[in-house]
């Protein structure tokens, strides 16, 4: 029985991206796997605001994942880019159904920006040091389209236990195998960090805290 569940999503094709490298990379990650203690669930997300609104709550609720990592393509990216935060406002671009939210935001009255609990600079440094042959960088602007929208919703639903990775289009410069390998290293590093945080928290609590429900301190 796997004791950790991780969900990794890619997006369907849209616009000039007839093949979406994010979903290709996620399928490659699925083929590679993580480690045997981790249950990996992958899915392809429609490039539609309303579909994302329906899909994300069910992903978080049904699977109760430890971590959700969303992967998207950026035509501007030349590196594999770790996004630190998701934004609530500024959604003016039409989706694959020619729809955009009338409010131009994800959640009425939601915070403007939500940060991941993961320190993307630390993840980036660790991956760079491991020298996997793929350049990784960090960004604080996921682009105000379906990527950013999905990330914000996921961060909100998962209390920050979410991550977003932008990948370049295939061959610019990385192959699907390169991207799959990079995702594998990134997700493993993120899981390691979450474990570390948890053991430090538990250590702190064991010293200072006699409450029962100790595991609820992070909500």
UniProtKB/TrEMBL annotation:
- Which Pfam families is this protein grouped with? Peptidase_C15
Q: Does the keyword GTP-binding apply?
A: no
Which EC numbers characterise this protein's activity in its record? 3.4.19.3
Q: Keyword set for this entry?
A: Cytoplasm, Hydrolase, Protease, Thiol protease
Asked if the record carries the keyword Transmembrane helix, the reply is: no
Q: Which SUPFAM superfamilies match?
A: Pyrrolidone carboxyl peptidase (pyroglutamate aminopeptidase) (SSF53182)
- Kindly state one GO CC term assigned in the UniProt record: cytosol
GO terms classed as biological process: proteolysis
Example GO molecular function: pyroglutamyl-peptidase activity
Mind telling me which PANTHER family this protein's record contains?
Answer: PROTEASE FAMILY C15 PYROGLUTAMYL-PEPTIDASE I-RELATED, PYROGLUTAMYL-PEPTIDASE I
Function, as annotated, reads: Removes 5-oxoproline from various penultimate amino acid residues except L-proline.
What name is this protein filed under? Pyroglutamyl-peptidase I
Which organism was this protein described from? Answer: Mastacembelus armatus (zig-zag eel)
